[in-house]
Design a protein that fits this description.
The protein is α/β, with parallel strands linked by helices. It has ten helices and nine strands. The N and C termini lie far apart (40 Å). GO terms for molecular function: acyltransferase activity.
Length: 291
């Protein structure tokens, strides 16, 4: 059944990805109308999240953020489809890394890197980083239930040469390469919600006390990797600017969980400045009453 669904859907997705971006954004506008005005996809979740973290804002202000978020979410959906077939030339033009040259210094100094990022802007197009760095590029992902679509997502995200590794295997993979002296850069979405009973630390995220994912910090300390924050900003529709912000070259010198706190401070600053570009449809605060 999984294979049949994949065979039916994949050709349609591939054909969509071949369309020019201006056509895909028209489809994004249609999708927004259906998702927001007709079906109300996750509007309750989004509204609850915004009311929780922005109690100082009026209902009108929060509704405007929600509306702009759904427009952005629909753009992310078509941009992810485009990632199936987008050319390197086009994505370099649309996703610009402003200071990739700083990674050369880390490489020359024999430093591997953990790149911490949040679900902000367009995290799917960050794969172009692999073309800009001397390190071996990796990205962490969670396996999908449908093995065929899992292979499709993996193939798409590896479009520009990065290697995708599951969250269950990333520690052993990086440890082996570290032992061999291979220099790596690993992209980790670090604002995800840990499973109940599997978290070691909780703190405030946008003013709400929740469990924190600390795996990136723990990995950095274990292997003595440099930690960098990837700040992604939306310049205009279809165009993003990414800036690499060094966090620490000496993670072992920091008290436990301070690096995690630093990451969330950086992410919060972005969200408060332009909240519409964060992933509000995710139930990030669902465990707030269980810490």
């Amino acid at each position: 059944m999984q294979k049949l669904l994949y065979l039916l859907v994949y050709p349609f997705l591939w054909l969509l990805s071949k369309l020019p971006m201006q056509i895909l954004y028209i489809k994004s506008d249609v999708l927004f109308f259906l998702m927001y005005h007709v079906f109300g996809y996750r509007r309750k979740v989004v509204n609850e999240n915004l009311a929780l973290v922005f109690p100082e804002k009026t209902e009108k202000e929060r509704n405007e953020i929600a509306k702009e978020f759904f427009k952005h979410l629909c753009d992310i959906i078509v941009e992810t489809l485009k990632a199936f077939t987008i050319s390197e030339k086009e994505i370099r033009n649309r996703f610009v890394v402003t200071n990739a040259e700083i990674l050369d210094n880390y490489y020359q100094n024999n430093r591997s890197i953990l790149l911490m990022a949040g679900h902000y802007g367009n995290w799917e197009w960050s794969g172009i980083l692999n073309k800009l760095i001397p390190h071996q590029a990796h990205a962490v992902f969670k396996t999908l239930a449908n093995q065929y679509f899992n292979s499709l997502v993996k193939k798409t995200r590896e479009h520009f040469g990065a290697t995708l590794v599951t969250n269950k295997k990333i520690v052993s993979v990086l440890y082996r390469k570290w032992k061999k002296g291979e220099k790596t850069l690993t992209y980790i979405l670090s604002d995800q919600t840990p499973k109940m009973g599997h978290f070691k630390y909780h703190d405030t995220f946008l003013g709400v006390d929740v469990p924190m994912f600390t795996g990136t910090e723990e990995l950095a300390k274990k292997l003595d990797f440099t930690v960098v924050y990837l700040k992604v900003e939306k310049s205009k529709r279809g165009y993003y600017k990414a800036t690499l912000i060094p966090m620490t070259d000496n993670p072992k010198e920091y008290p436990d969980y301070q690096i995690t706190r630093m990451f969330f401070d950086l992410l919060e600053n972005q969200i408060r400045e332009k909240p519409e570009f964060y992933l509000w449809s995710h139930k990030r605060w669902k465990h707030r009453d269980k810490v």
